[in-house]
Amino acid sequence: MNLEDVIVETLKKEVVPAIGCTEPVAVALACAKARELLNTKEATDIHVSVSPNIYKNGLAVGVPPTDEVGLYIAAALGFIGGESKKGLQLLESIEKEEIELAKELLESGKLRLDIKDTREKVYIEVKLNTNEGFSRVIIKGKHNQFVYLERQGEVVENLQENATEAIDRGESIYNLKISTIIESIEKTPHQRIAFMLEGLSMNEEVAMSGLTKKVGLGVGYTLHQNMKRGILSYDLMNYAKVLTAAASDARMSGLKLPVMSSNGSGNNGLTAILPIVAYKRIFDVPEEKLAKALAMSHMMNSYIKHYIGRLSALCGCGVAAGTGAGVAIVWLMGGKMDEIEGVIKNVLGDISGMICDGAKVGCALKLSTSASAAVQAALLAIDHQIIPAGNGIIAETAEDTIKNLKRLSYEGMDKADEVILKVMQKSQRIRSA
Question: Which residue has the higher pLDDT, 416 or 183?
Fold first, then answer.
C-alpha cells in the first residue's frame, strides 16, 4: 500500500461522526453490545470498568439527548436503547421513554461502575449478568474498537493479543517525517479526500447552534456578542476562537447533533476543523485546498496523539488538534515546510502545559485558547518568527519536538494525571453530598 492510500485509509478510520462526548458514548456502545450478545433487556447486574482516562473524560460531560452528565447515564442508555451498529452515533435514536427506563435502571442499583487499574488509556469492560446467562465485552485502544466478546462462556471474538500489534502496524505512518506526509497530501487527487469537507459543514452547523443561543458555558456566544458590540473585531483569530468555543459549548452541554471527531475525540475534531472554517469565511478558498488543509490538520492531530496517547494528562485539543489547525492555516496562507515546522514548534512552545482535567462545559475555554494559539502560531511562522531550538522542549526538528512532548506526557505528567483524577473525584463527592 502506497503512502497516499495509507493516508486516505487513516483519515477514513480516524475522522468519523460522533454524537456526544466520545468517552461516555464509548461506554454506551460497550453496554449496548453486551445486551445484544444476549438479546435481552433484563439484567440482574451490569458491571462497567473503565480506565482512569475514560473515567476522567466522562465524569462531568453532558450526555445527549438527556439533561444528565456522566458515565452512569450513558451506560444505562446504551443498555436500554443503544444499537452498536450505529457506532459512536448510537445515542442518536434514544427516545424520551428510554431515558426514563435508563433512570429507573440506575435507581435499581443493578448498574455498577468503577475505575480499572490499567495503563491502557482507552479501556472499557462490561460484564452483564441475567437470569439466562452472562456476556462480557471489552473495548480497548480506540473508542469503537471491540477486542473481546464473550457470551454464555463462549468466546465470540478475541483480538486482545493482536490489537496492539495491529495498531502499531497501521500507525507506521507516524514514523515518517512530517514533510513526507504533507507532500503526499498535496499530491493527492481532490476526489480521494473530498470527503473531508463533510466534517467542515457538520462542525460548522454545531458552531452555529452554539451562537444562536447561550448553552454550556456560553463562551462562543459571549465572545460573539462582544464582536457585534465592536468590543472585539471580526478578524481571523477572534472568528476562530468564537466558532470553536461555540461548538464546544453546544457539544459539552449534550447537544444532540453529530460532530466530526478526530482521532477518537469530538473536541479534537472541532479544534482541527473550525479554525479552517473561520479562514474560509474570511478568505476565498477553493474546495480542493480546503479538503487538503483539513486532511493535514487531522493527520497532524493523529500524528501527535500517536506519541502522547489518545487520552492524556495534556489537553489534546491544544497540543494536537490546535497544532493541526495551525499547520493547515499556514499552508493555506502559502507557507512551505519551514513555516509548517515553525507552526508546530510555536504551538508546542506556547500551550504544551495545558492539562486535560476531563470533558466538561469549561472545555470551551480551552478550545478557544487552542484556536487562538493556532492562528497566532501560523501568523508568526509565516513571518519566520519561530521559537528556536533549545527553548524549553523545542528541538531542532518538529519530529524531535513532538518526541519531547511524548516524554512530557508519559514521564512528566503520569503522576499529574493521578492527582487530577483524585481532585475531580473529591469535587464530585462534595457535590453529591
Answer: 183
The gap from C-alpha 150 to its chain's centroid, in whole angstroms, comes to: 28
Residue 169 has pLDDT above 70, yes or no: no
Phi/psi class of residue 349: alpha, beta or left (left: φ > 0; alpha: ψ in -120 to 50)? alpha
| Residues pairing with 140 in the sheet | 123
Question: Is residue 168 predicted with pLDDT exceeding 60?
Answer: no
* Cell numbers placing 415: 503522576
For the segment 60-73, what is each residue's pLDDT rounded down to a tens digit?
A: 888 998 988 999 99
Grid cell digits, residue 272 = 482541527
Q: Using CA atoms, how far apart are residues 49 and 29, in angstroms rounded to an integer?
A: 13
Confidence of residue 400 (pLDDT cuts 50, 70, 90): very high
Question: What is the number of alpha carbons within 13 Å of residue 316 lying toward its C-beta?
Answer: 29
Of the candidates 128, 140, 205, 201, the residue with the CA atom closest to the CA atom of residue 166 = 140
* Grid coordinates given for 24: 461516555
Please name each of the domains of the chain with its CATH number. Answer: 21-162 (3.30.1330), 173-427 (1.10.4100.10)
Torsion sign, CA atoms 157, 25, 144, 84: positive
Strand partners, 124: 50, 139
**The pTM is what?**
0.92
Given a contact cutoff of 8 angstroms between Cβ atoms, the answer to whether 254 and 20 are in contact is yes
Q: Collect contacts of 66-74 with beta carbons under 8 A, ≥24 apart.
A: 66/99, 66/102, 66/254, 67/254, 68/254, 69/254, 69/360, 70/24, 71/23, 71/24, 71/27, 71/113, 72/106, 72/111, 72/113, 73/24, 73/102, 73/103, 73/106, 74/20, 74/24, 74/25, 74/27, 74/28
Q: Which three cell numbers stand for residue 120?
A: 491502557
Phi, psi at residue 336, to the nearest 5°? Answer: -100, -170
| Best CA proximity match to 94, nearest among 112, 79, 108, 106 | 79
pLDDT per position as a tens digit, 104-143: 999 999 999 999 999 899 999 999 999 989 999 999 999 9
Angle at 258 between CA 329 and CA 107, to 5 degrees: 135
Distances from the Cα of 104 to the Cα of 62, 82, 83, 93, 429, angstroms: 19, 16, 20, 19, 22
